[in-house]
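Hey,
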Amino acid sequence: QDNSFEQFIINYCNEKLQQIFIELTLKEEQEEYIREGIEWTHIEYFNNAVICDLIENNQTGILAMLDEECLRPGTVTDDTFLEKLNQVCATHQHFESRLSKCSRFLNDTSLPHSCFRIQHYAGKVMYQVEGFVDKNNDLLYRDLSQAMWKANHSLIKALFPEGNPAKLNLKRPPTAGSQFKASVATLMKNLQTKNPNYIRCIKPNDKKAAHVFNEALVCHQIRYLGLLENVRVRRAGYAFRQPYEPCLERYKMLCKQTWPHWRGPARAGVEVLFNELGFPEEEFSFGRSKIFIRNPRTLFKLEDLRKQRLEDLATLIGKIYRGWKCRTRFLLMKKCQIVIASWYRRYA
């Protein structure tokens, strides 16, 4: 119920993770159809980049203003930090405060004067400003670091490398918010180089109890995890896509014209294959480099046909092998019989 600086930076990380989820699923999904030349009607979704910008913008972001307050000479308190937020973010659509000049919050008794509220992608969260400045400073004074570095224990010395007089740095150490922001940026950069798979966990109740299903709580999570938009994009789009070369290689045994070898472009081979199988035209589309299959049932049908064809091919191979083995044995026995008979006639 009471959220402070710690919950604020945790929610900031959640916003960044939601942003990369949007980038890699909803946005990338729809842009791929455009790149491949597939006819597509754009589906609107909420992009939380505006919330991330509210928090991390280098000039007007909440973390930047918090750092500015921590570095500012003179009397600095949590109240002066809130005043600064009210001046800079008063007109932002996702920022709310009783002390801001925006008239719609002046009579909002649910929002105390010492708090501000951010409308995150998962709902509104209210933060108590008390302790924000002190927690963001998180300073360890140099004399304490130098004293710990002088300890005889190697582990303690290793934990405080900034106390080494040879590496004395007179610059002010980074704030907790700046360090966390840099860590999140590194995490995002690392995730963007990967091909992540998402597992969305739905909490059925707040009591951690078995066999208790809170419908309102589940609907809230589904709505704010972006699952509705993701399902809409998936249902309107194509369930499966694959480059032409591996698709032809996997399913070419289903068509006599492409089996065992197709002499020509992979796309032409896939077109011949799908026309031969007789799937409805609305079930697939040919992109510039990939085949798109709309319904999972079509893919399951392809896999079933392939499985049956592999069984038929295995039976054919076994039949040919057994025939070859029997024929070879018969010819060997015939040759032996001729040799034996010829020697017997010579003897007789």
